[in-house]
Every structure is written in structure tokens, then in C-alpha cells.
Specification:
Blueprint lengths: L10 H11 L12 E3 L13 H19 L3 E3 L3 E2 L4 H9 L4 H19 L9 E2 L3 H16 L3 E11 L4 E3 L18 E10 L5 H8 L7 H11 L5 E6 L7 E6 L30 H5 L15 H7 L1
Parallel strand pairs: 1-2, 3-4
Antiparallel strand pairs: 5-6, 5-7, 8-9
Length: about 300
């Protein structure tokens, strides 16, 4: 006995029924346990592809699982539309970014609706629209008033083709941009920072409250937070019993400070001309703890450049 093939002609009827009855909307079961399921939003720089499907089909399966167990599930969707990918695509195809972005959103939404994924489209957000980014602006101003947003200079990865800053993860092993393929440059730029370090201790402590999280994932979070008190070490100066050089190390524990054979200081300031006279460190024989002080044979400015 042959199995009848699936007839896709029945799908439009049921999609219309689901939309009319609001089957996918949250709040239909006010007395049921609640669940919130969210996948990352796509860049609307083109239509969706199988890489998106691998992500969104899993979220759909999880949503259906909890719905069938009697839960009231909020499963919204949105578009990460306020950024570089959409702008670059618009430049490439010589069209206005807004027109390009909204056309792609419409096409991508049709693809998701055809797939029958259980999204509550009444909760749809588009990050390039004022009704969304008004809240990101509100949040930034609040952080700024509380002293948690500040402006400073820092060295960044600069893509000379896309004319933008890249995260370390966006630079491949050969030092090239993952998008444009250009050789990434190091530039010092003024930029905005959030003082998340003020909350490092709370973030670390509260990781232990996350029951059910894999230890591997929590370890990744600890490493990302990167809190480190370091250690303070004093290096004796050869030839002098009364002089020492206090040094702060960024090691997580004092045992990480191994016996030193040289001491140098790294500066982020631009290189300058060497001093006209040798430094006291050179005359005294250099700084060392154990072993031979290799930096003793060169002026301190050369040690800083070498570091």
C-alpha cells in the first residue's frame, strides 16, 4: 500500500484559519503556566536561507512542545534592521536603505508564514522603526545620567572597505574581515562604553543561581566577564637594597607570576624619541627578580617599544 504524498494545497486554508483565530497569540490561556521563547532576529539584508531555518525550526518545535503541554507561550519575532548589513546591501544594489530593508522584511515574513512557524506576529518588532529605537535611546540616556555610559578612546579593529569597527570574532585567522575580506587595521577611535565592570562581581555570583545551565556555557560566561583582581609584585633593583619597582599583574592568581628574566613597561601612547641620557634603571643594572635582567642592557624606552 503506497503512502499518499503530502498536498501543499491544503496549507493556505489552514494558515488563514490560524491567523483568523489567533492560534499563535500569547494570552489565550490566562490561567496556564507561562513560557517565553525567543530566537535571535535576522538581518533583513536579503531573503532567508537554510541557516535561518536551522535556528527558527528548533524554536518552533520547542514552542509547540510547551503549547501541547498546556502552557501559554509568548513566541515573538522581529528584525535586526538598524545596522551595517542592511546599509551595505543597499549600497551594493543602489537603492535606499529603508526601501531595501522593508522589501526584504516582507519577503522574509512570507517565507516564515509559509513554513507555519508559531510566531505571535502581533508582537513583531523592527529595530529601525521609531517605536522600537525610542526605547534604546531612552535606555542609553538613563545609563548616561547614572554614570554608566562614558566616552573614551580605545584601539579597535577597522575595516577599511566597510568603513566600520569589527569585533574580534569578525576577524579571521589571517587578520581579514569576515565580510569584506579586507586586511583589518588597528585604529584608535573615540567611542562609547558601558561600565559593565561595575557589575562584574554580581554577574559572576549570580551565575551559580542558573540551574540547568550547562557548566560549559557558564564557564564561557565567566571568561567573557573576565573579572580579575590580579596581584602586586615588587621587583628588586640590582645593586640597590633600598629601591624596588612595584608592578601590577593582571594574573588571576599569584601563582601565575613565574620567575622573571626581564621587566618592561608597555605604553599605549605614541612612540617618542629616546631620552637624551640613560635612565636610572640602566645605570642600576635593570629590574629583575630571578635570572638575568636582559632589559638592563637597553634604555627603558626601547624596552617599552619592544613590549
Amino acid at each position: 500500500m503506497s503512502t499518499p504524498r503530502f498536498d501543499p494545497a491544503i496549507e493556505p486554508r489552514w494558515r488563514e484559519f490560524w491567523a483568523r483565530e489567533g492560534i499563535f497569540r500569547a494570552g489565550r490561556r490566562p490561567d496556564a503556566p507561562r513560557r517565553y521563547i525567543l530566537e535571535m532576529f535576522p538581518y533583513p539584508s536579503g531573503d532567508l536561507h537554510m541557516g535561518h531555518g536551522k535556528n527558527y525550526f528548533i524554536g518552533d518545535a520547542l514552542t509547540r512542545y510547551w503549547v501541547m503541554r498546556g502552557h501559554d507561550v509568548l513566541h515573538p519575532f522581529g528584525w535586526d534592521a538598524f545596522g551595517l548589513p542592511a546599509e551595505n546591501a543597499a549600497i551594493k544594489y543602489k537603492t535606499h536603505p529603508r526601501a531595501w530593508t522593508h522589501r526584504n522584511i516582507e519577503e522574509s515574513k512570507q517565507s516564515l508564514e509559509m513554513a507555519g512557524i508559531m510566531y505571535d506576529w502581533s508582537r513583531e518588532v523592527t529595530t529601525c522603526e521609531p517605536d522600537y529605537y525610542r526605547w534604546t535611546q531612552w535606555l542609553f540616556l538613563l545609563l548616561h545620567r547614572r554614570g554608566l555610559a562614558y566616552r573614551a578612546k580605545a584601539t579597535v579593529n577597522w575595516d577599511p572597505v566597510d568603513q566600520t569597527v569589527l569585533a574580534n570574532e569578525q576577524v579571521d585567522a589571517s587578520g581579514r574581515s569576515w565580510r569584506s575580506g579586507a586586511l583589518v587595521e588597528k585604529r584608535e577611535l573615540a567611542q562609547w562604553f558601558f561600565k559593565i565592570t561595575d557589575y562584574a562581581e554580581r554577574l559572576l555570583v549570580d551565575l551559580d543561581k542558573l540551574e540547568g545551565w550547562p557548566e560549559k556555557v557558564k564557564a564561557m560566561q565567566r571568561n567573557w566577564i573576565g573579572r580579575s583582581e590580579g596581584a602586586e609584585v615588587e621587583f628588586a633593583v640590582a645593586g640597590s637594597e633600598d629601591v624596588s619597582i612595584p608592578t601590577r599583574c593582571s594574573a588571576r592568581r599569584s601563582s601565575s607570576s613565574r620567575p622573571s628574566t626581564r621587566s618592561s613597561r608597555r605604553s599605549r601612547r605614541p612612540r617618542t624619541e629616546p631620552p637624551s641620557t640613560p635612565t636610572s634603571s640602566r645605570r642600576a643594572g635593570g629590574a629583575r627578580s630571578t635570572g638575568r635582567a636582559r632589559s638592563a642592557r637597553r634604555p627603558a624606552w626601547r624596552s617599552a617599544r619592544a613590549a
